[in-house]
Write a structure and sequence with these properties.
The complex is a heterohexamer, with three copies of chain A and three copies of chain B. Chain A is an alpha+beta fold. Chain A contains nine helices and 19 strands. In chain A, the strands form five sheets. A seven-stranded antiparallel sheet of chain A has the order 12-18-17-16-15-14-13, with helices on both faces. A four-stranded antiparallel sheet of chain A has the order 5-4-3-6, with no helix packed on it. The longest helix of chain B has 22 residues. The chains are: A alpha+beta, B alpha+beta. At the A-C interface, helix 8 of A face helix 1 of C. Bound molecules: FE2/S2 (inorganic) cluster (3 copies) and fe (iii) ion (3 copies).
C-alpha cells in the first residue's frame, strides 16, 4: 500500500489541496515515515541548552522520541529514545545531566553517544544465566541521528539521504536566519499550544502571507504589517522553506490608498485605540528596515521576528487532527534591560494569548471541523497565480503552494 | 484570634470570590479595577516560573495594559464563544500582615465552549501581593502560575 | 469498497440486525455519505428561529456543518459551513445576525444565499498579486442545500435525488405532525444529551413501541401509556417514518386484566405514589383522545407528545459510538400561563432527567458495551411478527423493522 | 465587621457544605429538607438562563416535588450506580442582608461510575435565595445554572 | 457564635490549606509533620471503605512510616516528574467540639505531567480526626476515600 | 485477512518481538477473538464471592462482558452479559443478588444459568402482537461459558476446545498455586490500575525475572529478592504459565559478592534506610523457604506472594494501548490479627503505590511511547539464552520467551 498513491492528486496540481490529506490516518502514518523519519532536517534544540558534557534533553522527530546530549567529547549527539533491549524510554525526564544513559528497566548502560556500554548481569551469576556469547554490544546501541548545527540551531535527521544541513537550508533562507539571530540566544520563556487540527493546517497558516492583515486586526488597525507596505516572500529552490518579510516604513501606496483598500475589511477597526500603546514601538535592532519576518523550514520549524519579538516555533504532529505547537521566546545575552523589557512586553503579540497570533491557534481547528464529510473536496490556492517561487509581494499564496510542491514528491502524491 | 484578623480573612475571601465571578460572568470591563494602577499581572507556567524565566503569556505592567487586553478581546481579536468557571481553594497569607499582604491560592478553571464541550482548561496557583486602597484590597501583583506548559487552542479570557 | 457490501446481511432480513452495524467505523463513514449526505431530508430549525433577514444559525447534516440563513429576499437558505477558499468555518457562532457571510481567515465574502460576492485583494495591490483573470466568483460559492418547510419545521438535503419534502413525509405521518403542532411554536428551552452509543441504537429505541412500559416505571405504575390501552403505530409506506400513539382513556382490556398482565413486571410498582402528582394530569389540547404520540422521520428527527409535553429531538451522529441528542421543548404562542406552567412541570417527564426518558439515555450505551466481541451476532426483531407496516397495536417491533427496511437499500446492505 | 456578620458568613458556609455532603454521601432523603415548603428548584443551562427560557431539566415548584424526585430515583428509575463529588467555591452575598439573602456560588461536580470511570460532569453556578427558618437557613429558590448545554448520558442525582 | 468558635474554624481552614500547599509545592519533607506520631494514614477507595475492607493503597500506622514513604519517593522509587493541584471544599466538623475533632472535606486533585498533560487524577473525601498539639492541630487519623476504584498509572505523591 | 499472517515474525523466533504487536489495532482485535474468546481459561472470581444461590457479579473475557452466578442448584454459572433479544446488558451492577436475571429493556427473563424463562407479552395482548409461534425460548438463552474451579479460583472459557482446567494449568504450576492459597481466602481489599499500554507489555513484565532487582530499589537495597539468592522459574510445558520464586535465605553467592555484583546498579542505594522497617519482616507461613513467588497463567492471571503479601491480579485489555490491571489483596479466614496487620502493612509493597510495583505501572507506558515510529523494529529476548523452559535461575528471560512461544501459534504468527 505504501507504494501506490493513497489518493489521486487533482490535475490542477499545487492549485488544489484535497481535504483528505488533513484527515486521513493512513496519509498521516505515511507522513511520519516518509517526512519526519525521512530525508528532512528537524530542529532539536538550541546549542546553548546543553552547555556541559552530560547535559541532555528529549524531543521528537514526528512522534518518535529523541534524546539530544552533549557528549564527553564536547560534541552534540542525538539518538532515538528507545532502549535496544525491550524498547523502554532511556531518558524519562525532559532534561537532565548524566555521565551515561542507563535504562531504568534492566540497567543497560549507553554512553552519551548511544553506544551500548554494558548489560546488567551479561555474564550471568555464578555460572548461570546471562547473555549468549554471540551477543555483541556494538550491535545493540541506540539508533543514532545525524546532527548538525546552523549557528546556534541544532538539527537532526534519521535519513542518510538528507543533504548536508547547509545545503538543505540554502543561502537565501540561511541569510535570513542569521539576520534575526544576530546575538547569543537567551531563552525568555517557553510554552506550547495544543492545536486540534492536522499539523499541515498550521504550517500552511505560517506560510500564508495573504491572511495576516485580514485575520489579525492588530496588524491592520495599527498599520503593523499591511500588504500595502513593501515586502515579499523568499522561497527556497525546491519550495521547502520560506521567509516572508515586511518593510513597514516603506509604503508601496500612500496611506490614504492603503486605508481605502482596507476600508470595510472586518479586520479594520478605525476607532480602536490602546490606552498604553508603548509596547508596539519597534526599537532599531536588525540594521535593516524589515519590521516583520516569518520564516519556515520544511517540515516543521518556524523562526519569527515581529518588531523586536523573536521566537522559534516547532510544530509536532500528535495525530491526524492533533498538533503540539512549541514556542521558544528569545532574547540575546547582549540585550540591555530596556530591550529585555520591550521583548517581554511585545510577547503579548504572540503565543497562545498573542494579539496577532491568538486566531492562528483556532483557525486550523475551524478548518478541521469544516471539512468533515467533505474529504473529497479541495482547497483553492490561486492567490497570486500559480507560482511557487520568490516574489516581492505578499498578496499571494506562493509560499503555501511551495509547501505542497515540496510535500508531494516526498509523499508520492 | 482578634475580630480584626477574622474580618481581614473574610475580606480577602470576598476579594477572591468577586474576582472570579467577574471573569466567569463575562464582566471583563470590571476586571482591571481589581488591580492597582501600577500593577504587574502575568500568566506563566510553573516551568518558566521555577526556571526564573521572565516570560508571560499575558504580561501587563500597568492597569492600562489590562484595559487594552479587554478592549482587544471585545473589539479586535477573534475567538469562539466560551466561558470559564473558576474554583478557588486554600487561600493562605504567606507574609507578614499589614497594608500589603502576600497571598497564595489554588485554582482550577473549567472552560466550556458554545457547543457545550467542557475541559479542565487550567490548574495552578495565584501568587499575589495585595494592597489596601481605601475600603478595598487591590492586586499590586498577580502572577498566575499554571501547572501545565500546555494551553489548549488559545488563551483569550484572562485568568 | 463502497460498492461491494460491507457485511453479509442475515437471510432473516429485517428480523435480524448484525451488531457490527453499531460498531464498525467503515459502516459509520458510509452512513455519513449515503444517508446523511444522501437522499434524505433532515431537520434544520424552526422557521421562527430566523425571523429577520440576516438572521443565521448553524447545525449539521450528519457531521457536516451547515449554515441556515434568512436571506434579504425573506427566504430561508442553507449552505455547508465551509469556505470555498481554504475550507474555514464561515460562521463561527451558533447563531447571529449579519448582512453577509464573511470568512474570518481571508475575508472572502458571501451573500446570505452562499454566493461568493467578493475576494479580498482579488485584483492585487499596486499591480502585484491577486487572483488570476480565470477566477470566476460564481464557481466558488458555498455548497448549497435544498431547503423546504413542513409547517414551521425547516428541512434540508444536499441530494438532488431526494423527493419533494411533502412527498418524503407523506400524508399519513404529515397529518400526525400537524395534529401536534397546532399553534405557533414557542421554544421553552433546549438541551442536549451526549449518548455513548451508535446513533441507530437511539433511533431504534424511539421507534420501539414494545419497551416503554417495560423500561419506564412511570408509564406502567401511573397507567400512562400501557400496552393494554388503545393505540398503535402508523408507518410510512417505505418504512422510513413512524408515529406510535396511545389513546389512554380507551382500555382494550379492563383495568384488572391490565394489572394482572403487568403484575410482576419489574417496571410495575403498585405501591409507588407521588406526594405532588398534579403535574401528571393532562389538559385537553389536541381535540382527540391521544395522550402520547412519538413520531420519527428517517433518519434522525423525532417529534414527541407526552400528555402536554411537546418536544423535538434531533439525533446527530458524532462517531460510531457517540451521538448527540438535541432537545427542543415547545409550547405555543397561544398558550395561557396555566398551560405554560403545565408544560414546564411535565418537562420533568422527558429529557436527560426525565422520569420516562432517563433510561433511554443509558440503554443504548449498555448495548454498545454489551456487544463488544459479539459483532458477528445479531439482535432479534420478532415481536409482532415479521411486518413493517402500520398496526393498531404496540406490542410489536414493526416500526423498528421498518427502520431497517428503509436503511438497508440506502446502504446497499 | 461585627461578630454577627462573621457568624452569618460561617452559617452560610455550613449550609453549602452540608448540602453537598448530603448529595455526595447519597443521603438523598435529607435533600428536600434543605428547601422551604414552597421552594422553587430548577436545573438549567446558562444558554436557557440567559435567553430567559423558563425550561428546567429538573423543575420543582414545591418541596413535595423534590421528595417525588427522590422516591422516583429510589424506586422507579433505572440508572447505573454512580456518585457525585461537589466542589463549591466563591460564595457571595449579592443582595441586601436580612432574613432573606440572595447568594451565588461556583460549583464543579465530578461523577464517578461503578467501574471507576471519572468525568467532569457539571460546572456552573448556584443562584440562590435563602430564608431563615428558625435556627436554619433554607433554600427558597435554588437555580442550578450549568455552563454547558450538554448532559453526559443522563442526569439522575440532583445537583 | 463565639469568637472562639470562629477562630477554630479559621484555624482548621488554615490547616487544610497548609497541607495541600505542602503537597502541591513538592515540600514532601514537611508532610509527616502534619500528623501525630502515632497517626493512622490510609488511602483507599469508597468501594473498600463502604465494604469495611481494611486495605490501604498507602497504609501507615506511624509518622515514621510516612517519613519512609517520603524517603522512598525521594531516593528509591522511579516515576515520571509530575505535580498535583488540590482543590478542597465543604469542610465540616461532624463530631463534638473539643481537643479532638472529627472532620470531613471534599477534594479534587488534578495531576500534571512534565509534558503538560493534565488529568483529574482523584476526587473524594477526607475523613479525618485532628488533635490539638500545643499551638497546632495535627491529623491523628486521615483516611483518604477515593470515589474511584481506579488509579491512573500509579500513585506516587501522597494525597 | 484473519487467515493470512498479520505480520512476518522474525526468523529469530522467540528471541525477537516486533513492536507492532503492541500497537496494531488489527492484531489487537485478533487477540480478542483468538485468545480471549479462544481456547484459554480466564479467571472470573473467587468462589467465596458468591456464597448464596442468586448471588451474581460481572467481569470480562477480554472486552466481552460476562456474568457469573451461583445458581439455585448451588453451582457456579457464567454467561455473556448480553441479552439475546436486542443485546442489552442483562446485569447492570458489578455485583448483586437476584432470583433470576431480567433485562431492563423489555423484561425478558433468564434463569441463573442463562436459560430464557419468559418473554414479556410473548402471547401479545387481547390477541394482538406477541412473538410468532415459531419462537422457541430454548434457542434464545444467554451465551454460556464453561466454568470450572481450581481450588477457590473460578475460571471460565467460551471455547469448547479448551482442555479441562486441571490439564490446562498442569501439576507443575498447580502445586505452586496450592502452596500459596493454603487457607480460606479472605479479601482485604481491591483496586485497579489503568495502564496506558498494551496488555502484553504488562504480562511480559510479570514474567520477567530479570528486571525486579534492577528496576525496584527495595528488592535490591533491602536484599529482598536479589538474583544472587537461590531461585528459579518454573514454566509449563507449552510455555503458557510460569512461576518464578526466590529462596531468599539461601544465597548462591556470599553477601560480599552479592553486594559487589550489585554495586553501581542504579537500583542499589547502600545508604537508604527506613525509620520503621518492621513491616518488611516476613512471618513464616508457607512451610518452605520461598520468600517471593510470582505466578502467571496464560493469558491474563497473576498470583503474587511477596513475603506475606498475597494478591491476585487480572489483566484486562481495553484497547491496543490501554489495559486495566485489577488487584485483589488476600488474607485467609484462618489469619490471626497480627498476620492481618502484617499483610496490610506489606500491602505498601504492591499495588499502584507499592514500593516494589509502582514502577511496573509506568514502564509499560514508557515502552508504548518509545516504540512510536519504530513498529518495524523488535525487542531482544536473549538473556539466559534461547530457552523457554524451567530453570533454577532467574537471570534469564525464559518465561518471557515462553509467553511468546504460547502466543504465536494461537495467533498464527
Ligand atoms: S528495556 Fe532497557 S534495559 Fe531492558
Ligand atoms: S479560508 Fe475563507 S477566506 Fe480563506
Ligand atoms: S434487549 Fe433485553 S429484553 Fe429486549
Ligand atoms: Fe496568523
Ligand atoms: Fe423510552
Ligand atoms: Fe516489577
Amino acid at each position: 500500500m505504501e507504494q501506490q498513491p493513497m489518493l489521486e492528486w487533482p490535475a490542477e496540481g499545487n492549485l488544489r489541496v484535497p481535504y483528505r490529506v488533513f484527515a486521513d490516518p493512513e496519509i498521516y502514518r505515511a507522513e511520519l515515515a516518509r517526512i519526519f523519519l525521512g530525508p528532512t532536517w528537524q530542529f532539536l534544540t538550541l546549542a546553548g541548552e546543553l552547555p556541559q558534557p552530560g547535559d541532555y534533553l528529549t524531543t521528537f522527530l514526528g512522534e518518535t522520541p529523541v534524546i539530544v546530549t552533549r557528549g564527553h567529547d564536547g560534541e552534540l549527539h542525538a539518538m532515538v529514545n528507545r532502549c535496544a533491549h525491550r524498547g523502554n524510554l532511556v531518558c524519562l525526564k525532559q532534561r537532565g545531566h548524566a555521565d551515561n544513559l542507563t535504562c531504568v528497566y534492566h540497567a543497560w548502560r549507553y554512553d552519551l553517544a548511544g553506544n551500548l556500554d554494558s548489560v546488567a548481569f551479561r555474564r550471568g551469576i555464578a555460572g548461570k544465566g546471562g547473555m549468549p556469547a554471540s551477543f555483541a554490544l556494538e550491535q545493540h546501541g541506540l539508533k543514532q541521528l545525524r546532527v548538525d548545527r546552523f549557528g546556534d540551531l541544532v538539527f537532526g535527521t534519521l535519513s542518510p539521504e538528507a543533504p548536508p544541513l547547509g545545503d538543505y537550508i540554502g543561502n537565501l533562507i540561511g541569510s535570513r536566519i542569521h539576520r534575526v539571530l544576530h546575538g547569543t540566544p537567551k531563552i525568555l520563556g517557553t510554552t506550547s499550544q495544543i492545536l486540534h487540527n492536522n499539523w499541515k493546517l498550521y504550517f500552511e497558516n505560517v506560510r500564508d502571507t495573504y491572511h495576516a492583515t485580514l485575520l489579525h486586526s492588530f496588524f491592520t488597525t495599527f498599520r503593523m504589517s499591511r500588504l500595502t507596505a513593501e515586502g515579499g516572500v523568499d522561497i527556497a529552490e525546491n519550495g521547502a522553506h520560506h521567509a516572508s518579510y515586511t518593510r513597514n516604513k516603506v509604503d508601496r501606496v500612500d496611506a490614504a490608498t492603503s486605508d481605502r483598500l482596507y476600508a470595510g475589511m472586518p479586520s479594520m477597526h478605525e476607532n480602536f485605540r490602546l490606552a498604553d500603546p508603548g509596547f508596539l514601538a519597534m526599537r532599531e535592532e536588525f540594521g535593516d528596515d524589515t519590521t516583520t519576518q516569518i520564516l519556515s523550514l520544511f517540515p516543521n520549524f518556524v523562526l519569527q521576528q515581529i518588531q523586536n519579538s523573536i521566537a522559534l516555533r516547532v510544530v509536532l504532529p500528535k495525530g491526524p487532527d492533533k498538533t503540539e505547537l512549541q514556542w521558544i521566546y528569545l532574547g540575546f545575552a547582549e540585550d540591555d534591560a530596556e530591550m529585555t523589557a520591550l521583548r517581554l512586553a511585545q510577547a503579548n503579540l504572540v503565543g497562545p494569548a498573542g494579539y496577532v497570533s491568538m486566531e492562528d491557534g483556532a483557525v486550523g481547528n475551524f478548518i478541521q471541523r469544516a471539512i468533515r464529510g467533505s474529504e473529497q473536496d479541495c482547497s483553492v490556492l490561486e492567490m497570486g497565480g500559480a507560482g511557487h517561487v520568490s516574489e516581492a509581494n505578499r498578496t499571494t499564496e506562493a509560499s503555501v503552494r511551495s509547501f505542497w510542491h515540496c510535500y508531494r514528491p516526498l509523499m508520492g502524491l | 484570634m482578634s475580630i480584626e484578623a477574622v474580618a481581614l480573612r473574610l475580606e480577602l475571601d470576598e476579594l477572591y470570590a468577586d474576582y472570579v465571578h467577574c471573569l466567569d460572568d463575562d464582566e471583563l470591563e470590571r476586571w482591571p479595577d481589581f488591580f492597582t494602577e501600577d500593577c504587574f499581572y502575568r500568566v506563566t507556567s510553573a516551568e518558566n516560573y521555577e526556571a526564573n524565566r521572565p516570560l508571560g503569556l499575558i504580561y501587563a505592567t500597568s492597569r492600562n495594559m489590562l484595559k487594552d487586553r479587554v478592549s482587544a478581546l471585545r473589539e479586535a481579536n477573534i475567538y469562539e464563544p466560551q466561558r470559564y468557571r473558576h474554583l478557588v481553594s486554600s487561600l493562605r497569607i504567606t507574609g507578614e500582615p499589614g497594608d500589603v499582604l502576600d497571598l497564595v491560592a489554588n485554582f482550577l478553571v473549567v472552560r466550556t465552549m458554545q457547543d457545550g464541550d467542557m475541559t479542565v482548561f487550567a490548574a495552578g496557583r495565584y501568587v499575589d501581593r495585595v494592597r489596601r486602597e481605601g475600603e478595598r484590597w487591590k492586586f499590586g501583583t498577580r502572577t498566575v502560575v499554571l501547572d501545565s506548559r500546555q494551553i489548549d487552542t488559545l488563551l483569550a479570557i484572562p485568568l
